[in-house]
Amino acid sequence: MKARTSSSSLATRGSFHCAWLVFCAAALALAATLPAEAQEAARDPAYRAFPLIGSRLAVWAVAQLHLNFAAFILGVPIFALIIEIIGWRTGEPRYDWLSHEFVKLTFAAFSTTALLGAALLFLFVGYYPRFWTYMTSIFFPTYWVYALLFFAETFTVYLWYYGWDWLAGPRKWIHVGLGVLSNLFGTAILFVANSWVTFMISPGGVDESGALKGSVWGAINNFTWMPINIHRLIANIVFGGTIAAAYAAFRFLAAKTDEERARYDWMGYIGNFVALAAFIVLPFAGYWLGREIYAFNQTMGITMMGGFMSWLWIIQAILIGILFLGSNYYLWLGMERIPGSERYRKYVPPMLIVLTLGFMVWATPRSLVLTLDEARAMGGTHHPLLGVLGVMSAKNTVVNLMILTTFLSFVLYRRANRVSTRGWVGTGMAVQWAAFGVAAAIVVFYGVYGYFVESIVRIGFSVYQVLAVLAAIVLVMAIDIPMFRGARSTGRIRWGTIAPRSQYVLILLAVTFTWLMGLMGFARSGIRQHWHVYGILRDTSPEAVTPALGYAANVITVVTIVFFALVMFIFWLGGLGEKGRTATHGHAPAPMLAGGSDADA
Amino acid sequence: MRVPVGVKVGAFSLLVMGGYAYFANSIPQIESKPPQELSLEGGSVTPAQLVRAGEEIFKTKGTCEICHRIGQKGTRAPDLAGIGGRAGKARAGTSATQYLVESLLQPGALLVEGYPNIMPAVDKPPIALNRSELWALTAFLQSLGGTVDVVLADIPATAGAAGPGGAAAAAVKVPGDPAAGAAVFAGKGTCIACHKAGKLGASPVGPDLSQIARIQTPEYIMKKILDPAALGTVAGYPKGVMPPTLGQSLTAREYTDLVAFLLTLK
């Protein structure tokens, strides 16, 4: 243990101290924005101009980077804790190693997140003083809650990471408890910050002049607060999973030994599994968020989906289609390293067809801003044939079918090297297939029925579609787990023998999801158009124009490149401490998996 | 030669992101610009000009076209073809003008059967049409099958009050001459003694105004000249130096010229 706390420990501890300093600086800046002082300061300019690139671009870039890092350090600990609990309850040390490995990644990114958060705060205070004064007048009490939560989060994460060896063995439950606390504090921090962001989109608890009507709770609990809380929580897990999987993929590709390749193949699989599991429920959270935006303000909702942002959803559909196809392709490639999986290869072509068709329907536009010539050429604002596929009825239907298909991929992967020995296997299988079939039929039925009813009724159909899919997932897994418990193995998973192109798929997923996060951030901010706080505080700066998608895409791309460059640098720094380290640790050592595990995770 | 993994992964990632960015740049590029304010009060305007202005508002700032169609049945909101003619008969004892104005200001009170109550009051944020714009929009709606007879007095004086966001601030048009304002800046106003403004002046006593229109609202600039103490002193500069008497020493013309000049400094 002493050996471990040498180099790597010092590196991470140093970064943590840096985080502390940054946080203290931010706290000082926060203190400087006490309402009276802030109001005094804001008598001067409403805006200041950031040199060269302008204030908006500076805030945009720093906010996106900060959110990327924050999502990573909040998402990864959630599944790291789950993996640690699995290792604790099953007694399998490889899970403990993996959990520690994941937390190590977030630990290295902690200080960068705090640094970027402080930079964002400085930008708001310095370049958007009128806006910041107004936000402070509403949310000042939450600043202290945020600061206290940050302290609590820091202490528990610190203890969680450094107490890994100290709290091993019979004291493991205390260690797991620290992990739970860390995640609770982290989630609370997310919720507090979300209240500020969502208030800007859908202000609540204030009168027409923007003054607080009652308590600050009315402003916190606005229309989009809880949907964004849930959406971001799930998305953070997906994001964390994809980044962790990409890290593993990089290590796999750079591995020099079979053992190392096997270890990172397994880690990549787990990362992707986590991402995929969370990803299939993400669209549901997205629909809820969309519905709440419409409930808050129909004009905003319609502008978002059918106005100047309509093309954005086509790009989103393409990115999500790539994520679905990539995730499934990775699973199919992974089956090649599982003896006995040949039985299921015949399912791949039909699944690919469903996914591809679903992708195409989802990417079909309905309402786009057209020039008069374009509209004339098409014979109207909607395409005479394809326009039918552009409505929500069709899109809801295909996304649910894609989720079902992806789940089927996972189920087949899961049983690839196992043959159930249960006497009721035939019945179990039949019920499972029936569950898939009934869910698909319900989804299609409501999808078609949706064309014949009013929009307000149609919106409600998506709930039935989602429930049908979720019910099928629960039922299939409820049968699958006991059915394959104690199953006969057709061979061990040959970890490390997966085709290298599969690792590029993992990198593709991470890059695509990160880019998608940037795009969705632009959508979230862009729907406010020329308002800092929608309908309350107008953006009167020269930069009040909401830019076109091309410009937004260029910014998102550059920031994503910077993010990955920083991530690689941070991981490289974190890995420096590993070099030459041979001492044993209190937590589980790196597992030996090459060709020697029947683990199905 | 063996290509390092980092290079391969980096090139692959750049290719993926480049593809996304390329696609996003290939599609129609549409910006959302802040709506401009229209002011017709105090001016003479013909019904035809009013209708034209109203049609523009219908399609842009009013965001009416998102839900309403003209000559096409929509699912969200009624078809407005012929509304100018129908409006006078929609409710007994209510003129077409009254009906249309009320529909715009209190849409929930005059809901057309079969349609959801989703229309926002258009004089409130975020749409926030002012009186002139409401006047023009009503005229446009009247022109759809009816007679344009709405006058500004038909629009309630309380309608269209700007919210705290300062909706009017960004588009204030000052009827001054920037060139003459530059002369005031360098001459009678004595601003040049303390301020730099682009190529004019170099004094560091007061803040550099070379980008003042970029970082400040017209409202702030106008007020600052008349009552500098009321808006405080920019951090880092001496207090009480700016003369409080410019409101008396400058003529109205010189004042508007000076503001117009400052608004060119971006």
- Number of distinct beta strands of chain B: 0
Helix content of chain A: over 70%
Query: Which outline of chain A best applies?
Result: globular
Radius of gyration of chain B: 26 Å
Encode the helix/strand succession of chain A as letters. HHHHHHHHHHHHHHHEHHEHEEH
Named CATH architecture of the largest domain in chain B: Orthogonal Bundle
Describe the structure.
The complex is a heterodimer of chains A (601) and B (266). By secondary structure, chain A is mainly α. Chain A folds into 2 domains: 406 residues, no CATH class; 155 residues, no CATH class. Helix content of chain A is 71%, strand content 1%. Chain A contains 19 helices and 4 strands. A two-stranded antiparallel sheet of chain A has the order 1-2. Chain A has a two-stranded antiparallel sheet with strand order 3-4. In chain A, helix 12 runs antiparallel to helix 18 and helix 16 packs antiparallel against helix 17. Chain A starts with 6 loop residues before the first helix and ends in a 25-residue tail after the last helix. Chain B folds into 2 domains: 121 residues, Cytochrome Bc1 Complex, Chain D, domain 2, CATH 1.10.760.10; 85 residues, Orthogonal Bundle (Cytochrome Bc1 Complex, Chain D, domain 2). Chain B contains 10 helices and no strands. About 4% of the residues of chain B have low confidence. Helix content of chain B is 39%, strand content 0%. Chain B is mainly α and 266 residues long. Classes of the chains: A mainly alpha (601), B mainly alpha (266).
Short description:
The complex is a heterodimer of chains A (601) and B (266). Chain A contains 19 helices and four strands.
Descriptive key words:
heterodimer; A: 601 residues; mainly alpha; 2 domains; two-stranded antiparallel sheet; two-stranded antiparallel ribbon; 19 helices; globular; disordered N terminus; disordered C terminus; B: 266 residues; Cytochrome Bc1 Complex, Chain D, domain 2; 10 helices; 39% helix
